[in-house]
Amino acid sequence: MAIKPVRLVASDIDGTLLGHEAAAERFQCAWDALSRHERPLLIYNSGRLADDMLALVDAKLLPKPDYVIGGVGTMIIDERMRARVEGFVKELGQPLDAVALAAVMNTIEGVIPQAAADQHPHKSSWCLHDAEEQRIHEIAARLVGAGLDVKLIYSSRRDLDILPHAGGKGRALAWICRELAVDLDEVVVAGDTGNDREMFEMPHVRGVVVSNALPELRQAIGHDRRHFLAQTSHADGVIEGLRHWGVIG
Question: Which of 123, 137, 138, 156 suits a disulfide with 71, CB 3.0-4.6 Å?
């Protein structure tokens, strides 16, 4: 079966497109060299909040995207209008119960809240260093026991994000693809940590794993041949992967 052309590229930012200044400049040049009328849609999919991501674009540290997915998949911004996509806000449902969440999380040893700037109504973010998977499952069970219907995303051996079930980098990207009528086998994703895992687990999606990716992502994808393991790091790895998938000639 022939591989479909790529119609959409979704990439993480920190540790993927950013983290090596010269590589980021090379990515920007390579992307801007593509025909605006023929290149895929570009989406940034990050744990950063949307305004922070748009500030990077305005500072010309990243090429202009079509959409940004922020807050670990809990907000979508249409870059053309610089406005939140309200359909996805409805998909997420009611905001998290911050008081009830804090009541549970404050009883867990070693857990501390992240900065207020990293929180928003559909994302509660905490720091927990070097937790094993079993401990994350135990925390999830305690939240369920308190009547909180949420999902947990743990990455970088430090960041613990609590989201609605409709949130997450993969769920948000899948929502955009449905809205834009883009098939998942026309999508390439790129990332480097565990909070990118949902994107790589989407059925039929092709991936690019940069060489500096953490073991938590490499182990999650295993030897899945849908995903390209770059030999270079950061944005150079993304360029390498986009060449492999035929986006960059």
Answer: 123
Residue 84, CB half-sphere, CA atoms under 13 Å: how many? 15
pTM exceeds cut of 0.85: yes
In a domain, 1, yes or no: no
Q: Is 75 helix (H, G, I), strand (E, B) or coil?
A: strand
Distance between CA atoms of 213 and 35, rounded to whole angstroms?
30
C-alpha closest to that of 196 among 237, 145, 142, 231:
237
DSSP H or E stretch at residue 208: strand 206-209
Domain boundary among 109, 137, 160: 160
Domain edge (last residue) among 160, 182, 211 = 160
- Phi and psi dihedrals of 23, rounded to 5? -65, -40
Q: Give the pair of three-digit tokens for residue 239.
A: 């360029």
Instruction: List, in sequence order, the alpha helices (H) in the chain.
Output: 21-32, 50-58, 86-92, 98-105, 133-145, 169-180, 197-201, 215-221, 234-244
In this structure, the answer to whether residues 154 and 223 fall within a common structural domain is: no
Q: Give the span between the Cα atoms of 202 and 210, in whole angstroms.
A: 18
Q: Is the four-CA dihedral 47, 137, 167, 194 of positive or negative sign?
A: positive
The sheet carrying 227-229 orders its strands as 83-84, 75-78, 67-70, 41-45, 8-11, 187-191, 206-209, 227-229
